[in-house]
Amino acid sequence: PPAAPEDRYERFDGGFHERVRTGFLALAEACPERCRVIDARPGVDAVQGQILDVLRSRFPELEGL
To answer: Helix, strand, coil proportions of the chain in percent (round to 5)?
Structure first.
């Protein structure tokens, strides 16, 4: 099959994105041992730091990162 356009999700309306967000937040609440919510509003550096913190807490062998 032909490749889907790279912006196919961006073309969906806001309602679609809100339903997806709500679904992911419900999953994170139901499975906190598997899913962590990262607030992307602070910017790339803060998000990267949060992700590394989560990874280090779950995988202590990554402490040097």
So the answer is: 55, 0, 45
Output the six-digit token pair for 40.
């992307």
Count of helix runs (H) and strand runs (E) in the chain: 2, 0
What's the token pair of residue 59? 């995988």
Taking only the tens place, the pLDDT of each residue in 25-57 is 999 999 999 999 999 999 999 999 999 999 999
What are the tens digits of pLDDT across the range 22-33? 999 999 999 999
Q: How far apart are CA 17 and CA 12, in angstroms?
A: 7
What pTM does this model have? 0.68
